[in-house]
């Protein structure tokens, strides 16, 4: 019975789901990193308007479940299912990343600002060339942790019918899910998420090591 | 600077991929019939019938992992409708639905109709137009052979797994009340999860419509002979799409009269 599961076509079908997962995860990570950084900088800003607007967005989004964003985005944006998933995950993840970035900005010593400004750099030049690079270096571990969460959270989009990794596993289970296979399929889904996240953490650790070495 | 260009390229690539995916696959439009209702004319002008179907229910709507094709009795019904509406059974756009998304997809116009093991109920009729039933089945019980259960009575005090938003729970509860026994329910997101719960011993029984259960039958399980509360499946359309609802219903009734519906049921082992 279990041999049926080892058919190459089923493996390809499953891996195709992994590509959908990666498409959603990578797109939302890249977009969230951009929006999250803008939000984090806005929240850190001394302008009360920017700071309050960013704080309102972050507090609101972080207190609503991701699944709700996914359902609402699917039925209100008019985007295709995968893109509505990316949109919902970006809205949600950018709020989390904003908090991480704000923490990173806070961790940069105030003296760095003063030194840069005394050299004649503007606020944005100081932020871009002096403070943000250091902040990013400091927040690599929590950012990585958030990226792995994003990869795992993509499984929520199956709730609106997107056939990502978990969804493909469920479909395979629909036909081949007898007692022994069910756990083999669950195991394959879990192992695939683990491998992807483990490779990501290895890559990040390598990059973190390089950056740390360069800064001394 | 290199890193900035890399980041910028990623964003540009993403935007291009969004645009490319959004623009893909326009179909040649069909000659419009001037006397057709606006919702029917819209489908004919578009040249594609958009339907919400199941992708995880073997025999009804199932994406076969070996071929990658979505197949089943309900898919054949959608094809027959596409042939009538736009003149080609292959001019269909299928959207996978789950119990939670069937209604909203109709409401917001993502799909023209839903043919997805949708049980007709009085409550649902308030929100959507349903066709006459194209398939009638009873709620049944799938149990482990090793449990030695013979009927619902033997499941007194046991846990029964059902899918969220399904009508099975109500049907089994009504029958249990009638027989004067108490049963407990655990709800899961999909049929596959209920089956996994049965396999792992989290529930003692998996309950849904018999035809769906037969898709999950294996050497270690058995479907009990009990059948409760006949479940009738109908195709649903948005409440305001009255003309489309009539056309779909007429098409199905014609298929019943001509014997085509029976042929399809037999093809998928549902008769």
Automatic annotation (TrEMBL), chain A:
Q: Spell out the Pfam families in the cross-references.
A: BPD_transp_1
Q: What Gene Ontology cellular component terms go with this record?
A: ATP-binding cassette (ABC) transporter complex
* Organism of derivation: Acetonema longum DSM 6540
Keyword Transmembrane helix assigned? yes
Q: Which family does it belong to?
A: Belongs to the binding-protein-dependent transport system permease family.
Keyword Phosphoprotein recorded:
no
Would you tell me the protein name for this molecule? Polar amino acid ABC transporter inner membrane subunit
Entry's localization field: Cell membrane
Q: Which NCBIfam families match?
A: HEQRo_perm_3TM
UniProtKB/TrEMBL annotation, chain B:
UniProt cross-references to Gene3D superfamilies, sorted A to Z: Periplasmic binding protein-like II
Domain (Solute-binding protein family 3/N-terminal): residue spans on this chain: 48-271
Instruction: Show which residues constitute the signal peptide.
Output: 1-22
Q: Which GO terms describe its cellular component?
A: extracellular region; outer membrane-bounded periplasmic space
Q: Does the keyword Signal apply?
A: yes
Q: Name one Pfam family in it.
A: SBP_bac_3
Q: What InterPro entries does the entry give?
A: Bact_solute-bind_prot3 (IPR051455), SBP_3_CS (IPR018313), Solute-binding_3/MltF_N (IPR001638)
Q: What is this protein called?
A: Extracellular solute-binding protein
Q: Which family does it belong to?
A: Belongs to the bacterial solute-binding protein 3 family.
Whether Iron-sulfur counts among this entry's keywords is: no
Keywords, A to Z, come to: Signal, Transport
Organism, per UniProt?
Answer: Acetonema longum DSM 6540
Offer one example of a GO biological process linked to this entry.
amino acid transport
């Amino acid at each position: 019975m279990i041999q049926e599961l080892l058919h190459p076509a089923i493996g390809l079908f499953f891996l195709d789901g992994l590509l959908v997962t990666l498409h959603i995860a990578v797109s939302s990570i890249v977009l969230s990193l951009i929006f999250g950084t803008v939000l984090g900088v806005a929240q850190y800003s001394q302008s009360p308007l920017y700071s309050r607007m960013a704080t309102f967005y972050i507090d609101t989004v972080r207190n609503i479940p991701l699944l709700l964003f996914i359902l609402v985005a699917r039925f209100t944006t008019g985007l295709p299912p995968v893109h509505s998933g990316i949109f919902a995950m970006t809205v949600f993840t950018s709020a989390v990343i904003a908090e991480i970035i704000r923490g990173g900005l806070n961790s940069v010593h105030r003296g760095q600002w003063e030194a840069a400004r005394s050299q004649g750099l503007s606020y944005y030049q100081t932020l871009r060339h002096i403070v943000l690079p250091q902040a990013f270096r400091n927040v690599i571990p929590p950012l990585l942790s958030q990226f792995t969460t994003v990869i795992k959270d993509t499984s929520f989009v199956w709730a609106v019918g997107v056939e990502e990794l978990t969804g493909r596993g469920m479909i395979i289970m629909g036909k081949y899910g007898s007692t022994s296979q069910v756990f083999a399929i669950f195991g394959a889904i879990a192992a695939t998420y683990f491998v992807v996240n483990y490779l990501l953490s290895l890559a990040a650790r390598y990059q973190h090591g390089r950056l740390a070495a360069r800064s001394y | 600077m290199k890193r900035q260009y890399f980041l910028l390229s990623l964003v540009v690539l993403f935007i291009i991929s969004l645009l490319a995916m959004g623009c893909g696959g326009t179909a040649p439009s069909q000659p419009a019939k001037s006397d057709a209702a606006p919702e029917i004319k819209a489908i004919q002008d578009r040249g594609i019938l958009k339907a919400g179907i199941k992708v995880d229910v073997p025999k009804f709507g199932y994406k076969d992992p070996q071929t990658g094709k979505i197949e089943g009795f309900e898919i054949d019904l959608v094809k027959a409708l596409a042939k009538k509406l736009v003149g080609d059974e292959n001019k269909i756009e299928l959207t996978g639905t789950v119990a939670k998304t069937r209604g909203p997809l109709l409401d917001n116009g993502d799909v023209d109709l839903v043919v997805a093991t949708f049980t007709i109920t009085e409550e649902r009729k308030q929100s959507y137009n349903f066709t006459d039933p194209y398939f009638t089945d009873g709620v049944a019980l799938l149990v482990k052979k090793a449990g030695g259960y013979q009927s619902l009575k033997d499941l007194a005090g046991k846990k029964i797994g059902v899918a969220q938003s399904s009508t099975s729970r109500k049907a089994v509860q009504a029958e249990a009340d009638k027989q004067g026994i108490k049963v407990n329910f655990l709800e899961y997101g999909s049929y596959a999860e209920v089956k996994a719960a049965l396999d792992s011993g989290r529930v003692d029984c998996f309950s849904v419509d018999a035809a769906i259960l037969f898709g999950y039958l294996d050497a270690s399980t058995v479907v009990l002979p009990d059948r409760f509360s006949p479940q009738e499946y109908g195709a649903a359309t948005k409440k305001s799409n009255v003309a489309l609802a009539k056309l779909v219903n007429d098409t199905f009734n014609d298929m019943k009269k001509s014997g085509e519906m029976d042929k399809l049921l037999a093809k998928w082992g549902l008769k």
